[in-house]
Amino acid sequence: MEHIYCDDYPNVMHWKAVQEFTIEQASLLLAGLDPFDFKEGLDSVKQINHSRWKLAHGYALSLETSIRRGILTPIICAKYVYNEFLNEMSATKIDPNDRTETMSYRHTIITRSSLNQWVTNENVILVLPYRAKKNPSPYYSRNQYRR
């Protein structure tokens, strides 16, 4: 299993108890970024030209593709649409297999266990803190989101 090591890995201990993630949150965490640090999620990471923005977006596309192919089962799969009646944007449930619909990364939800299984089965390259390379410990195992 390959890893990408970085010096600017954030403290993400506050995510350890979270059991469900949006595609956006999961992709940012996989890229070694704390979703709480980026108000507009993937858009923010790209706008500031973060060194790992392409990696985060790539993870989001990979997660979407895996959901569409039935490899990863979402709790809810949603799209974001303009509701003329309410004059606002809202999330609407969609069929994951319907490729005519654009999946919302902010509203489609997956579980921690399905994410862990996907990371393992698909040999996803994880971003880890550089200190894990110097001092490997059980905490920085192959699957950092398991605990």
Structural class designation: alpha+beta
Sequence of strands across the biggest β-sheet = 1-6
Mean pLDDT: 87
Order of helices and strands: EEHHHEEEHEH
Q: Count of DSSP helices?
A: 5
Report the span from N to C terminus: 19 Å
Biggest sheet details: 2 strands, parallel
State the share of residues found in helices, binned by percent: 25-40%
The amount of beta strand, in percent, is 15-25%
Low-confidence stretches: 139-147
Write down the Rg. Answer: 16 Å
- Based on CA inertia axes, which overall geometry fits? globular
Strand segment tally: 6
Q: How would you describe this structure to a colleague?
A:
31% of the residues lie in helices and 18% in strands. The strands form three sheets. The protein has a two-stranded parallel sheet. A hairpin with a 4-residue loop joins strand 3 (78-83) and strand 4. Residues 139-147 have low confidence and may be disordered. The protein is built from five helices and six strands; from the N terminus they run ββαααβββαβα. With 147 residues, the protein is of the alpha+beta class. Helix 1 (23-30) packs across helix 3.
Give a short synopsis of this structure.
This protein has 147 residues and is α+β, with helices and mostly antiparallel strands.
